Each structure stands twice: as C-alpha cells, then as structure tokens.
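Exercise 7b. Backbone tokens:
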C-alpha cells in the first residue's frame, strides 16, 4: 500500500503539472518556446520524485518499472501494483485537468469554431494525450508511424539509461542522493527538447494513456486517438516500454560490468591524483 500510494501520488503530480503547462500554452497563448514546456515537465518530474521517493521507488512511469524488473532491480511480483498505481494516478490527473479547464476549453472551442470530436479538435485534445506529428508543428514536422515509434523508444531508452547511471551505486561518478531527482528531471527536459517537436514526447505510457482516456470520455472520442492504426498504442505505450527494456539490458549486461571492473582500470581522468611528497631534505 505504501508503494502503491507513492506511485499514484507521484504520477498524479508530474502528469498534472506537465499537462497543465500544455493547457495554458494552448488555451491562453502562454507558449513561448519548447524550452518552457520541457523545463516545466522536468520540474514536475523532479518535484514528484522528491515527494514520493521514500514511499515507493518513485518510478512514476510504467516503462521505468518494466526496466527495473528487466535489470533485476525490482521483483516482477511488484510490477502489477506499480503499473496500476501509475495509470490510476495519470487518469486522476487528467480528470482534474479537465475539471479545472473545462469552461476555458469550451470557450476556446467556441471562439475558434472547433467542434469537439472532429479532426479540428485535435488542437485541444493535445492538452491531454500526445500526437504525432506535434499539432503545434504540423506545418513543418513530417513524422511517420515508424519514425514516431523510434523517437519515443529512443527518448525513453535515454531516460532509463540515465536513471540507471544516476542512481546505481556502482557508478562512482553519480550525483549525491539528494541531487539525483534534479538530474533526472533535467534529463527529461533535455529529451523533450528534441523529441517533442515530433511526437510531443510522451516517454511515459501512463502519462499518455490516462489523460487520453479522460479526453476520449469527455467528448473528443476518435479525435483523442492519433490515427486509425492504433498509433496511440504503438508509439506511446509499446515503444517506450521496449526502449526502456533495451536500456535495462544494455546496462545490466554491458555497461554495469564495465563500471564494476577494478578501480585501477578506470581512466586516468577518474583517478585521484596523489599529493606529491615534499622534497625538503631531511636534517
């Protein structure tokens, strides 16, 4: 129950903060640059980890939880509780987002002659789930289903890999424990900077599926889905899980053994330079 509560609360917080930033950008013209969105998402992740890491392991992402099982860092028996809490937390965040912004969304739709549930309502549906190409860059980005899967999978691969390197004790170059959530948040922000123009950078199946379900039930229906071939599943659920699992395998069987090699095999730049002895002659 402790871990379930931590995963639910943390996923709720990061999803609410991140989606609210996108909602404000869409509804109120507050979008300045991708830097703004990336930093808010990164900050949301950082705060969510600080909030819950002593309740659960603060995965807050089904792909990360799967990676931890693959890497042998968590027992597979704990996975269902973690996944259930994460998806429930994201659904509750999507519901709260809709309750808070429903009047503003309706007003925005009226002003822009948007009929909810039609193709044009993707403009407001993107406040909840992700779409490829990003509707905000639809005139520039050309993103096929395979490319979108690659972008989401590779982005989540990098995220999981950084989490392993930033938190595992065998990496002597990792930041101290109090700073680890901050660096994970900066990792999320950095990945968003180059993935979001293509796919809005989900990197988290719960963060996408939870609010997307709320949007579907709130009237967006088929407009809440990115295409007619199940792209919401292939791009935003399957690809991140595969990417994170590949990162776990790479770390467990290739990179971790290198980190565990003898200290005298470390590069010169990583060694502690001994203080030279004094050359003062003995009396």
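Sequence design result:
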């Amino acid at each position: 129950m402790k871990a379930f509560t931590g995963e639910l609360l943390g996923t709720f917080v990061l999803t609410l903060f991140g989606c609210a930033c996108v909602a404000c950008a869409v509804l109120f013209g507050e979008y300045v640059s991708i830097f703004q969105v990336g930093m808010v998402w990164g900050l949301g992740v950082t705060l969510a980890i600080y909030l819950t890491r002593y309740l659960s392991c603060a995965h807050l992402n089904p792909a990360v939880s799967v990676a931890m099982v693959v890497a042998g860092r968590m027992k597979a028996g704990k996975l269902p509780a973690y996944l259930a809490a994460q998806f429930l937390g994201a659904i509750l965040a999507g519901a709260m987002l809709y309750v808070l912004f429903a009047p503003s969304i309706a007003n925005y739709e009226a002003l822009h002659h948007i009929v909810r549930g039609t193709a044009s309502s993707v403009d407001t549906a993107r406040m909840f789930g992700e779409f490829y190409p990003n509707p905000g860059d639809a005139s520039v980005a050309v993103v096929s289903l395979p490319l979108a899967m690659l972008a989401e999978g590779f982005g989540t691969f990098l995220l999981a890999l950084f989490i392993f390197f930033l938190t595992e004790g065998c990496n002597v170059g990792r930041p101290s424990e109090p700073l680890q959530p901050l660096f994970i948040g900066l990792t999320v922000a950095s990945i968003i900077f180059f993935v979001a123009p293509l796919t809005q950078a989900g990197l988290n199946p719960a963060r996408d599926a939870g609010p997307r379900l709320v949007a579907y039930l709130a009237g967006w229906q088929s407009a809440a889905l990115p295409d007619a071939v199940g792209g919401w599943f292939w791009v935003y659920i399957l690809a991140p899980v595969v990417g994170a699992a590949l990162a776990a395998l790479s770390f467990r069987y290739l990179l971790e053994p290198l980190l565990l090699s003898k200290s005298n095999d470390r590069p010169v730049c990583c060694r502690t330079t001994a203080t030279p002895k004094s050359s003062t002659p003995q009396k």
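Instructor comment: The chain has nine helices and no strands. The radius of gyration is 21 Å.
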